[in-house]
Amino acid sequence: MRVSAGLPTGMEGLTYPIPFSDPERVAEIALAAERLGYDSVWGNDHMTTQHYVREEFPVPPRFWEPLITYAYLAGITKTLRFGTGILVLPMRRDIVAVAKQLCTLDHFSGGRLEIGVGIGAYREEFDAVQPDSPLQRGDIVTEGVRAMKKLFTERVSSFEGDFYRYRDVEFFPKPKQANIPILIGGNNHNNIRRAVEHADGWLPAGVHLSQIKTGVALMKQLADHAGRDWRTLEVAPQFIVRIDKTRAKAVDAFQKSQMYKHLVSLRKSTLKGQGDIKMEDSNLIGTPAEIIEKALAYRDAGVTHLLGLYFAAGSVPDLIDQMTMFAEEVIPHITSRQPGR
Asked: Which of 93, 191, 66 is nearest to 147 (CA)?
């Protein structure tokens, strides 16, 4: 099981205070992730400030475009991989330009790119960037993945969709990797179907172990029906982490964090299927031993990658301390072979 760290490309105001993510600190976090042995970093994608963030903070957050950020970070790192967690395709109108950026980044990073795509957690962002669009965001994601894969694999290709269209495009160079992994983000079962039909894996966020088990069972069923080996598909959930000497301290720090407020805001969208499950129970909150036990249970349920772990912290030094503790006290115990795969 791989373990990766979240990168705050678009997290000021949402999950961290303002200010937090200046360029020097983002680079510091990426370098720490590489030094500590994390597989990759995963940055999120926002174009405009969410309504609840505007109400809380008088100063706007800084949202960095993830691909441009990775272009810089690729030049100051050697082994660290980079993933988009997630790239919100419905906010990006020109799929040929997106594919060109991704292929360029894959080459200039030496083949260290992975792609997570999705609809985005906040409908209000889509409405701001694509006003009055009658289209469903999920359909746009499906179109976008299909359109990109044609560009990645065919010398000359055309695509005619409701949102994305191009004609007679000779797209070169192709990606450096034989296959850039594409993961579909989102907790809804429709995203598992999209992952099986069009991509390389499923990227949910903050889901309880019971929901992972249900999702993996559905993935197996859909893969069998589609003639795919489910073992070739990634199950790569994102989680919030707060690690401490006692569970009480970890839960207290988590519940006082900006990260907790963010999860509350997602109860209306990404996390609306959580019901009465406590957020500390559907994330990695507790002592090292408790987190190891929970992570191994996720691994046994089919998780292949703890993707983009987002540490609940109030400052960058606190964040790096959390990354360090997790790397030293948890990762060695959970990165052995993957049972059942």
From this structure: 93
